[in-house]
Amino acid sequence: MAAPQQQKLKVNGPVAVTANRLADGAVVWRTAAGGWSTALGDAAVVTTAPEAIALLEGAHKRDTDAVGAYVAPVVLGEDGAILPGNLRERIRVNGVTFELPASEPPASTLPAA
Amino acid sequence: MYVYDEFDRAFLAERVADFRDQVERRLSGALTEDEFKPLRLMNGVYLQLHAYMLRIAIPYGTLSSDQLRRMAHVARVYDRGYGHFTTRQNIQFNWIKLEDLPQAMADLGEVGVHGIQTSGNCIRNVTTDQWAGATPEEFDDPRIWAEILRQYSTFHPEFTYLPRKFKIAITAAPKDRAATKVHDVGLRLHRNEDGELGFEVLVGGGLGRTPFVGKSIRPFLPVRHVLSYIEAIMRVYNQFGRRDNIYKARIKILVHEIGAEAFAEAVEAEWANIRDGALQLTDEIIDDIRARFLYPDFAALEDEPAELTAALEDPRFATWYRNSVHKHKVPGYSIVTISLKPVGAPPGDATADQMDAVADLADAYAFHEIRVGHEQNLCLPNVATRDLPELWRRLDAAGLATPNVNHISDIIACPGLDYCALANARAIPVAQEISKRFADLDRSRGIGRLHVNISGCINACGHHHVGHIGILGVEKNGQEFYQITLGGRADEHAQLGTLLGPAVSYDQVPGLIEDIVDAYLELRSSPKELFIDTVHRLGVEPFKERVYATH
């Protein structure tokens, strides 16, 4: 599968522009003020392709803050909350869908005697 | 272990210094992302969904205890306390910050490990049998030849910008644990009728969106010609391989399009010009490389010591012993596989504490040496058989004694959509759920050898095409679906799996796998007939009839 950056832009509902922060790769969202935020709630949400392209062009102007910007679907909750619009973005926002390995030795893995 | 010399150490230090400078220039804006990306990729640095990922090569799967301990250090200091062993004898750190990468690389470089040849369109980390140098089956230690190829291919100017990445695997035993038939080039070491050592050369294997089993283009190549012959293959590929379409640029497409015979003719014609030139390996060169591999000072020990006999009275030890211990070429010693697939855990992951524990055990019982296999498990290749009971107890204390090697819960899985920017479905949680369904080790032992491979997209990093049961994640209308194949195998009889039927949803996968297993238990001719043999005897139809009747 091609990464979202390589796919043709389609806007069929609310979208935001997202990227990874240059210094640490953290997921960031383009704000209406032309900055980046790690909180999806701060994202500028648009609903047309020209608006999305304008956001994206702004994101691409300066690449020392964030890299790999692309347009991602979002969903607007009843309370106005901005939520990720697909599984990929849910994982980017909420983290991996399983428990990360913890650095304490687990209990015995052997079958009972 | 292979002993690096001053040249290697200086080379790595310079490389780290170069990368530190590149990162500084990138962070300051002196380099654009377009300029920086190929530089980071040449050092094994990817940008994934949530963070940068550092892929470190473990050449021919061999690690010293100091190297593994240093990987634990990197996991602990720069990452989130764990690492992920991959299907190509690499380790990946999934959460490293770009600003920390130069120092992490410097720390790794001090013990001779790096990310070179783990990314980009170059000859990648050459892989081989994790039992190399230890198994009685082998004709020679394949790591000698992997190291020769590594030295030859690293930063070779002709191979820095190949049409696509290029993967070579070597086996020196008839039993293929290196998946040589599904690599761009597979080298199978054997002896001819005169006792001379040489390679069967396979070309054009590979998985991904267009999978092929490699074709044999030369049944016997004397070992001294291995570099010139590989160079001839690379020249033909460089000349005729497609660069206009990334999906058709691997050598397998070229071999398929012109045919193995025509490809072989082109290689032989090219080889005729260079075979007796500077690339011919002299005995002196081979002996020099061979001498840099230091082998353990094995003692004369009993093959069936009293310690083992006594410990086998314990059924838990006996279970682990039968599953995870194999015969060594030296009497009194054993090869131990350490499963990195505890029930319900992400396949191939090891915490920093577990890496340290394995390093300590390698020091105590295995001459400081660890191996990594493409099945995403670790191996202690040289353990005195009398020490096995004590080793087992200490492995268990570290959560590393699950006796499920080659069982259904010994799943190979790519990172999938939880980490990977290319994936379109998750792989790890699917593996975890299947593993939990078959947590009963008596049940999985009754099922016998069964390899499940899961990929989160068509790029096939989980090698689903060659799983006895292959699971491929696809995306349909924003939902995860999974295609199931049966009958694939990655060994010396390598074969691609056959599609079972329509894709099923994420939630249906574990139940479907249980139904496939139940069908096998009904259909097998006897408890001795392995899953793969039942599928090959009957085809997929009897499985399809039973499985889809309930889904």
Automatic annotation (TrEMBL), chain A:
InterPro entries: DUF2849. Pfam families: DUF2849. This is DUF2849 domain-containing protein.
Automatic annotation (TrEMBL), chain B:
The keyword Cell membrane does not apply. The keyword Metal-binding applies. It is an enzyme of class 1 (oxidoreductase). Keywords: 4Fe-4S, Heme, Iron, Iron-sulfur, Metal-binding, Oxidoreductase. InterPro entries: NIR_SIR_4Fe-4S, NiRdtase/SiRdtase_haem-b_fer, Nit/Sulf_reduc_fer-like_dom_sf, NO2/SO3_Rdtase_4Fe4S_dom, NO2/SO3_Rdtase_4Fe4S_sf. It comes from the Bacteria. Gene3D superfamilies: 3.90.480.20, Sulfite Reductase Hemoprotein, domain 1. One of its GO terms (molecular function) is sulfite reductase (ferredoxin) activity. Residues 119-272, 408-547 form the Nitrite/sulphite reductase 4Fe-4S domain. Residues 52-110, 344-398 form the Nitrite/Sulfite reductase ferredoxin-like domain. Its EC number is 1.8.7.1. Pfam families: NIR_SIR, NIR_SIR_ferr. PANTHER family: FERREDOXIN--NITRITE REDUCTASE, CHLOROPLASTIC (PTHR32439). Belongs to the nitrite and sulfite reductase 4Fe-4S domain family. This is Nitrite/sulfite reductase. It comes from Ancylobacter oerskovii.
